[in-house]
Structure prediction request, 436 residues.
Amino acid sequence: MKTIRGFGLFMFLLSFAFGGYAQSDFVKVQNQHFTVNGKPYYFIGTNYWYGGLLALQKDPKHGKQRLIEELDFLKSKGVDNLRVLVGSEGEGKINGVNRVKPVLQKSQGVYSKEILESLDFLLAEMAKRKMYAVLFLSNNWEWSGGFLQYLNWNGRTDLETMQKKMSWDELRDETSKFYTCEPCKNDYLKQLDYIFAHTNIYTGKKYVDDATIMAWELANEPRPMRASAIPAFKTWIKEVAQYIKSKDLHHLVTIGSEGTQGTEDSLALWKEIHSYPEIDYSTIHIWAKNWGWFKADSIKEALPLILSNTKNYIRLHATAAEAINKPLVVEEFGLPRDEHDFKAGTETQYRDQLYQVVLDELLAGAKNRGVVGGLNFWGFGGTSRPIEGQVFWKDGDDFSGDPPQEEQGLNTVYDNDKSTWKLIRKYAKAIKKALD
Prediction:
């Protein structure tokens, strides 16, 4: 008995040392908004997709030390919610690009515990700072393996097709197969089981019991990709959300949807999949460049359209979220620098104006206890910097806000982007005041 009590005391002290959350510290949903300990929680967050990989770096300056400094920086600016990659699959080229490495599932059914132990460090440090994580469990897109890799492992997409650069129609055709591939979906669930069973080596908490985690996200931007896949897409969302809830009694579940851009332009479909009782809140993403709202050399001329489209897109989905009585998070949005430059510290006045539109919607939500409950801008690059003369990420480079298939510095917010951080800090204070 003495040994058991001693161990229990040790675990209690360890939990306290790492800012351990009480049961009541789990983020919940009540009356269309998030709550913590019964109080409204409206958050400014960022995408820190690589945060769970930093502790793997052998050089502390680029690894654990960098992570600690960047978390302190974010907290000082009022950012307390991080959207992080946890589920990544396979190695080598995919859709013509290099994917993120290292990955959680290196080959079919073979997992790297080192990846989760690195994520452990991030979560433990976040707990010290009372920050929350949204963990996405796989990817519709190729840059972390995702659905294409599951299809290849199970013989539905051959290696040559997976590795070559596909046309948009080819990518849609291939990826949409995932929702009717039973062994693919079973492999996805096996990866979830591996994640849910993991115990943090720093805090002694299983992930399913850790209040640092705000939510599980089914995938990054899951889409049916083809209209013919919509019935199977809907079934997959419902079944996976039910599966997660059967394994985890504490955490919120969300889809990772872009909004109507990710549901074949159907607001009705977006509402339907977010109305499932196992889905706790709704999300949208906003990508002005990818969606053709401007051309690379015309941000200034197109800015009024970019800003009005952004506001309209948020409000369209906010009205739908109100109808299903669930919060809305704008969990991805970004814009290149003013001259489409990738260098850190160059002008971002147009990006700042986009950020202000989204921040205004969040502040209004906080003041009125409305459905717009949070945002995660894309993406935080911290102390990393683009390498002069090199456009894309290479193995061994520092991670930044832009994944490997995108130009490094394209949408990244670095720690020296002073005007952007001044804006974020201003709104963080205003939101805090609105909630006090």
